[in-house]
Amino acid sequence: MATKTAVLTDKAPKPLPGIYSQAIIANGVVYCSGAVAIDPVTGKLIEGDVKARTHQCIKNLTAVLEGAGTNIDKVVKVNVFLDDMKNFEAMNSVYTTYWGDVKPCRTCVAVKQLPLGTDVEIECIAVL
């Protein structure tokens, strides 16, 4: 049976205790939980628009990935959740500045509601 190891870094927002892990490492793969644009120092959702919050989501995921012993360049799959597809273009204008020339595969969907009333949440899978 494969082992799984929880990832916990103070450089990203703390997970809700007893509910989920920031990420799990299993079989050389890092599965990151969804990240919203919470400032890891204040524990509060950052101010700004979907662009600012997209940057913060990716910054939080980067910190978790580094805590797991990998980095953003090793991401192979991304899932983006938006509160409204009207935010698609603005989110993409930030998103495309990450991951170099070879982007990970991706899904982007609109959902009815996101945690804390935010407009974007992003999760990813990376290799070690």
TrEMBL record:
<comment type="similarity">
    <text>Belongs to the RutC family.</text>
</comment>
<protein>
    <submittedName>
        <fullName>L-PSP endoribonuclease family protein Brt1</fullName>
    </submittedName>
</protein>
<dbReference type="GO" id="GO:0019239">
    <property type="term" value="F:deaminase activity"/>
</dbReference>
<dbReference type="GO" id="GO:0005829">
    <property type="term" value="C:cytosol"/>
</dbReference>
<dbReference type="Pfam" id="PF01042">
    <property type="entry name" value="Ribonuc_L-PSP"/>
</dbReference>
<dbReference type="InterPro" id="IPR006175">
    <property type="entry name" value="YjgF/YER057c/UK114"/>
</dbReference>
<dbReference type="InterPro" id="IPR006056">
    <property type="entry name" value="RidA"/>
</dbReference>
<dbReference type="InterPro" id="IPR035959">
    <property type="entry name" value="RutC-like_sf"/>
</dbReference>
<dbReference type="GO" id="GO:0005739">
    <property type="term" value="C:mitochondrion"/>
</dbReference>
